């Protein structure tokens, strides 16, 4: 908002100073032609003109120089549009002059003075617009030296306004040296055309047209103002002559020279535009392959990008990518060619023992285009193939095809070879990332399974005055299937189960939870251990998948009878140690 307010203020100041310049200059001109002494000081129009220039200078500085959205062509378009408006208004004044004809002397003086002031204002506005636009182009890739030189040029031009603000004859002697210095600095600055290299072919043609019309507008406005100064000079010498204004003359020379230089540089760069665009596209394609690991979701997406970038870079007509799924099988990815055409070419090359293409041997078959032409129904005459390596292992072959014979040169071969190598690195990185993600998922699942297992095993086991039960379980890196639990049936009876679930990880934890539910539901019924095993087995039949099993030993400890009843189902035997007799035996 602040920048917009400043822009509006500067525009308003520019309009007011121009109106003041018109009034003062025409008054002095009218008084001079009628041999009257003007009431206005002779130096006042020069001061007002400089204020008008400063207001317009900073108006364009805020309007154009700080607009980051504008690109190169937009800047040229704005200069062209400003020149077009100035030229149209100037032509309209010429037409009005033709319609009026030859009026009396007093009216002619006023009309010529007004026409000159309007054309002078249009010329200054056009020059300052072009000056600001050329500044952005010159400083597109700036260095310290270039920035200092431009600052010297710009500040010097603004300081030169002092020469025209006051009629100091001593300073008039500096006119020619200062003008020569500004012209020389302007020529040095005009050699900075680095922005041209970033234009594509279409933008260069557009820029040429805009610059050509801009040069035409400049020449027309210069011619018109020169004609008007001659006409007014024949009537009186007391008017604001722009040719004595060092700022305006320096600006005219610089803007015109840079416009012509830009036109010539763009014109001579047209033949190399396609080469630059191709190199730029190669860089973009290479970056696209490199970033595929971050943007794509599967290896197939990387293969697709490799095909598209390779075809567009070397202007191939079709391509296929053969990926080895195993030693006997391979998967084909095609681009602008059918699977049948690809298989026909592959089989044709193998059948006719054509070497150095798909086999990547050093002994290459000559006259390849003739061999391809001998394949019925094939439209291709050139083929270029490269292996894809991942960890020094050939995982496939990239083949590019053209309908023209000898369609691939050495430069194209190097480029596609680089793409193939980078694709191999991207695929390797993609696989490593997939492996890392799988490991991360496995670790997360393992963490969850350990939490589940910990929650399934009781923290405190049942105990009595007649016995104590202690348990310890420690699995390795993976979650084990060990399960134990107790439940009190009544005051003198406790059930104990020791089980081992097949499998590891989340599967084992899931089966443990099933076994825990069965144990708690059946043990409370106070059934015989053998009956417990039968019913538990019937329940697990519908829970476990084929190949999974649970081994278990079930105990019922009765403190009244001092007996332990048990049943074992595939579990390892239980050792019983009698401390009184100091003996150990299996149950």
From TrEMBL:
InterPro entries in UniProt: Bact_Sigma-Reg, GAF, GAF-like_dom_sf, PPM-type-like_dom_sf, PPM-type_phosphatase-like_dom
GO molecular function, one term: phosphatase activity
Bilayer-crossing regions: 9-30, 42-60, 72-96, 116-134, 146-168, 174-193, 205-223, 243-270
Keyword vocabulary terms for this entry: Hydrolase, Membrane, Transmembrane, Transmembrane helix
Residue ranges of every copy of the PPM-type phosphatase domain listed in the record: 491-583
Domain GAF, chain residue ranges per copy: 364-427
Taxonomic superkingdom: Bacteria
Annotated protein name in UniProt: Serine/threonine protein phosphatase
Originating organism: Pseudochryseolinea flava
């Amino acid at each position: 908002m602040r920048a917009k307010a400043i822009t509006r203020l500067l525009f308003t100041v520019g309009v007011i100073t121009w109106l003041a310049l018109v009034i003062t200059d025409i008054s002095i001109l009218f008084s001079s032609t009628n041999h009257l002494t003007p009431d206005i000081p002779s130096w006042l129009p020069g001061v007002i003109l400089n204020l008008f220039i400063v207001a317009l200078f900073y108006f364009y500085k805020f309007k154009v120089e700080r607009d980051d959205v504008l690109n190169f062509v937009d800047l040229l378009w704005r200069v062209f549009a400003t020149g077009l408006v100035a030229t149209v208004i100037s032509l309209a004044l010429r037409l009005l002059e033709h319609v009026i004809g030859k009026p009396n002397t007093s009216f002619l003086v006023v009309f010529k003075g007004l026409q000159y002031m309007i054309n002078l204002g249009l010329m200054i506005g056009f020059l300052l617009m072009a000056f600001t636009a050329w500044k952005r182009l010159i400083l597109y890739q700036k260095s310290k030296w270039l920035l200092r030189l431009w600052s010297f040029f710009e500040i010097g031009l603004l300081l030169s306004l002092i020469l025209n603000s006051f009629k100091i004859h001593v300073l008039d002697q500096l006119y020619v040296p200062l003008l020569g210095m500004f012209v020389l600095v302007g020529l040095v600055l005009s050699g900075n055309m680095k922005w041209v290299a970033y234009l594509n072919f279409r933008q260069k043609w557009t820029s040429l047209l805009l610059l050509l019309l801009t040069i035409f507008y400049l020449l027309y406005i210069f011619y018109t103002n020169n004609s008007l100064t001659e006409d007014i000079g024949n009537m009186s010498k007391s008017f604001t002559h722009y040719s004595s204004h060092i700022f305006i003359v320096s600006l005219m020379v610089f803007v015109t020279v840079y416009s012509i230089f830009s036109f010539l540089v763009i014109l001579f760069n047209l033949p190399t535009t396609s080469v630059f665009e191709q190199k730029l596209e190669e860089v973009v394609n290479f970056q696209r392959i490199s970033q595929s690991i971050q943007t794509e979701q599967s290896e197939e997406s990387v293969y697709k990008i490799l095909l598209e970038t390779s075809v567009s870079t070397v202007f191939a007509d079709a391509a296929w990518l053969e990926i080895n799924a195993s030693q006997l099988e391979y998967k084909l990815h095609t681009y602008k060619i059918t699977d049948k055409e690809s298989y026909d070419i592959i089989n044709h090359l193998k059948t006719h023992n054509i070497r150095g293409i798909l086999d990547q041997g050093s002994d290459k078959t000559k006259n390849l285009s003739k061999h391809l032409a001998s394949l019925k129904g094939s439209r291709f005459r050139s083929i270029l193939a490269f292996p894809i390596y991942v960890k020094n292992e050939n995982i496939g072959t990239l083949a590019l095809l053209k309908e023209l014979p000898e369609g691939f040169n050495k430069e194209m071969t190097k480029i596609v070879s680089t793409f193939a190598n980078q694709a191999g690195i991207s695929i390797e990185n993609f696989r490593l990332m997939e492996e890392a993600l799988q490991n991360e998922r496995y670790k997360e699942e393992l963490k969850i399974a350990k939490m589940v297992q910990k929650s399934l095993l009781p923290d405190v086991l049942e105990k009595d005055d007649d016995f104590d039960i202690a348990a310890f379980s420690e699995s390795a890196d993976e979650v084990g299937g060990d399960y134990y639990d107790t439940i009190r049936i009544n005051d003198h009876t406790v059930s104990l189960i020791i089980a081992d679930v097949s499998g590891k990880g989340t599967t084992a934890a899931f089966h443990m939870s099933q076994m825990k539910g069965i144990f708690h539901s059946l043990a409370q019924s106070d059934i015989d251990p053998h009956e417990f095993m039968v019913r538990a087995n019937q329940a697990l039949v519908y829970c476990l998948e084929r190949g999974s099993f649970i081994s278990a030993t079930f105990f019922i400890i009765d403190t009244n009878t001092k007996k332990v009843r048990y049943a074992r189902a595939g579990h390892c035997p239980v050792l019983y140690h009698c401390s009184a007799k100091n003996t150990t035996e299996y149950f």
